[in-house]
Each structure stands twice: as C-alpha cells, then as structure tokens.
Amino acid sequence: MTAIAKKSLLREALIFAGLLGGALLVTSLLAEPTFATSMIDSSDNIDAVSNLTGGESDLKSIVKTILNFALSFLGFVMVIMIIYAGVLYVTAAGNEDNVGKAKKILMYCAIGTLLIFVSFAFVNTLLGAASDSSSTTTTTTGIAN
Questions:
Q1: What is the pTM of this model?
Q2: Is 46 exposed, middle or buried (0-12, 13-18, 19+ CB in 10 A)?
Q3: Is pLDDT above 90 for 103?
Q4: pLDDT higher than threshold 70 for residue 106
Q5: CB 92 within 8 Å of CB 99
Q6: Which is nearest to 39 in space by CA: 48, 30, 47?
Q7: What is the distance between the alpha carbons of residues 54 and 4, in angstroms, rounded to a whole number?
Q8: What is the secondary structure of 48-95 as a DSSP string?
Q9: pLDDT (tens digit per residue) in 23-66
C-alpha cells in the first residue's frame, strides 16, 4: 500500500469517526431530558415555535424533520445524477471516455443511494428510540367472560 493511499484511508477513517462521534453526541444530548428542558425558557412562546416548525414542538422532532428533508433532497439529487448518467451513456456514440464516465457516475450513484437509505434508517432509528424512551405507555388486556 502506498503512502498516499494510507494517508487517504486514514483521512477517510478520521472523517467517518468524527461524523459518527458527532451524531452520537447530538443524539445523546437530545435524549437527555434535562438538556432538552434547559433549552426552553419560560418566556418562550411554544405555540409560535410549533407553528413555525410545521407542528413540531420538541427539539428531537425538529432535528428529525430537518435531517429527513436533507436526506430526501439528496435522494432527489441522486435521481437527477442517474438521469444525467443515462443520457451521457446513451449519447456516447461509441466514445469510450463518455461510456466510462457514465458508468462511474452510475456506480457512485448506487453507492450514494445505499448510503442515503442507511442514513435515513440510522437517523430515524436513533431519534425514534430517543423520543420513545422519554415516554412510557402501558396497556392492559382484559378477558371477557
């Protein structure tokens, strides 16, 4: 393995570790009820915040909505790139450079789509688990005679 490849791999591993650590830090802070309630001041107008954020009143729901919107936007960009790669592939007319470029774009789009799906599941699972842990529900079952 060359020195450049080792540096690149190390840089990518550090970026991934930083992003993962940041995500875990944010989700752990959002799951802590004292942190969430300390952010709300008694002079805050919760109804105005709820109206401005589309009916979301707590921080976890707002973060989840923003992240889902960003991932949906990335999915839209991915569709546009797939269409671009398809047009590039069809109009290549035997030009190997354009065919190779289109195949590379399609490969990166497939990897990106997989990452978007995994990120979507990861965000919704973590934030959903954080919001479900703060409220408990009890159910009773009765047997009719």
A1: 0.54
A2: exposed
A3: yes
A4: yes
A5: yes
A6: 30
A7: 48
A8: HHHHHTTT--SHHHHHHHHHHHHHHHHHHHHHHHHHHHHHHHHTTTT-
A9: 777 776 666 666 656 666 666 666 666 666 666 667 777 778 88
